[in-house]
Design a protein that fits this description.
This protein is an alpha/beta fold. The protein has two domains: 3-173, Thiolase/Chalcone synthase (Peroxisomal Thiolase, Chain A, domain 1), CATH 3.40.47; 175-324, Peroxisomal Thiolase, Chain A, domain 1, CATH 3.40.47.10. It contains eleven helices and 13 strands. The chain has helices at residues 19-25, 30-37, 51-65, 90-98, 114-127, 151-154, 203-207, 217-239, 256-265, 277-280, 287-297, and strands spanning 3-11, 16-18, 41-43, 75-79, 105-108, 134-141, 159-168, 174-182, 190-191, 214-215, 248-249, 306-313, 317-324. The strands form four sheets. The protein has a five-stranded mixed β-sheet with strand order 1-7-6-4-5, sandwiched between helices. A four-stranded mixed β-sheet has the order 8-13-12-11, sandwiched between helices. A two-stranded antiparallel sheet has the order 2-3. The structure holds acetyl coenzyme *A. Acetyl coenzyme *A (ACO) binds next to helix 2, helix 6, helix 8 and strand 12.
């Protein structure tokens, strides 16, 4: 019984920060941001809205979309790099907001690859008989870990959540092939230096802005293109599916140029690539499930379609999947 996405939901906080708004705050331009990254605006969680609130809203919508109630969920996995608290998990904060039973709930930390890591874990739980329905949510409040004086990072990210209920499908449905990996030797190319136990919060860490995203953008760019392309080609081969048979490519939405290069190398034309970066920015683990929910709402994603997704993020981590809804 293949693990199939049977419900989708997405949530964004209402406030929108446009590139033009950013022009008023830092030395940047709408033109630079759009041409280098593809994004025009992003949503920003206001004070009082937590990551777990976005998880709860997206999850409730996904459960409803699946025609289920919260009691039907056996396990919840939240993929996030921006948890409500270091402990307990964001999943624990979200659990009562969704109204889930006393089921196992947990966070996983795989940055932008988090949703595809979560899908694989859900499939394993279902395959092994330990769960029938797993809620996988990618959610981020990245705008709270940005250095708003660093124009090379602060323009890139946004807040939001996307959730999927993973249940069982029929033959030729669900997860057809999956690949994943990580290379921790490259961790310092993209990380948040302080706030963990290595560098706990102190006046010095706050003054040095070590609680924000630190990134070597050019290096991340090159690794992202290479790795997302390799992973996409590997998973297509594993599935025995040619690029022409992919109805929709829904990659992690980091940067329009990364997505174009990955699509090009996987030989998938951009008309079959679904983009939401223009309205959400890079929402890390949330980007793929948010894009899936929007693609379906716009009629771009229909039952029976074959989808390719690929993700790459801090760690570095990566994953790719071929699946049918
Ligand atoms: N506005 C205006 N100018 C800027 C800005 C800005 N916001 N940011 C940087 N610049 C300037 C730089 O100072 C530099 O100026 P200089 O030539 O006078 O020194 C110039 O623009 C070019 O800077 P580069 O860093 O070379 O620009 P690049 O074309 O590499 O684009 C970017 C930078 C967008 C960050 C790119 O490297 C990138 O997208 N990297 C991937 C990062 C990413 O996606 N990270 C997300 C997490 S991982 C993931 O999700 C895959």
């Amino acid at each position: 019984m293949p693990a199939k996405i049977v419900g989708l939901g997405r949530a964004v906080p209402e406030p929108v920060l446009t590139n033009h708004d950013l022009e008023q705050r830092i030395d940047t331009s709408d033109e630079w941001i759009r041409t280098r990254t593809g994004l025009s605006e992003r949503h920003v969680a206001p004070d009082g809205v937590d990551n777990s609130d976005l998880v709860a809203e997206a999850s409730r919508l996904a459960i409803e979309d699946a025609g289920l109630t919260p009691e039907a969920i056996d396990v919840m996995i939240v993929a996030t790099a921006t948890p409500d608290t270091v402990f307990p998990s964001t999943a624990c904060w979200a659990q009562p907001k969704i109204g889930l039973r006393e089921i196992p709930v947990m966070d996983i930390s795989a940055a932008c690859s988090g949703f595809l890591y979560g899908y694989a874990l859900a499939a394993s739980l279902i395959d092994s008989g330990r769960a029938k329905r797993v809620l996988v949510c990618g959610a981020e409040v990245l705008t709270r870990v940005l250095n708003w004086n660093d124009r090379s990072t602060c323009v890139l990210f946004g807040d939001g959540a996307g959730a999927a209920v993973i249940g069982t499908g029929g033959a030729d449905e669900g997860l057809l092939a999956h690949t994943w990996g990580a290379d921790g030797r490259l961790a310092e190319l993209l990380y948040q230096p302080a706030g963990g136990t290595r560098q706990p919060a102190s006046h010095q860490t706050v003054e040095a802005r070590l609680h924000s995203v630190h990134m070597q953008g050019n290096d991340v760019f090159k690794h992202a293109v290479r790795t997302m392309s390799h992973a996409s080609l590997a998973v297509l081969e594993q599935a025995g599916i040619s690029p022409e048979q992919i109805d929709l490519f829904v990659p992690h939405q980091a940067n329009i140029r990364i997505m174009k290069a990955a699509a090009d190398r996987a030989r998938i034309p951009m008309e079959r690539c679904y983009l939401v970066i223009q309205r959400y920015g890079n929402v890390s683990a949330a980007s793929i499930p948010m894009a899936l929910a929007d693609a379906r709402a716009e009629g771009r994603l229909e039952p029976g379609m074959t989808v390719l997704s690929a993700g790459f993020g801090a760690g570095f981590t990566w994953a790719a999947a071929v699946y049918r809804l």
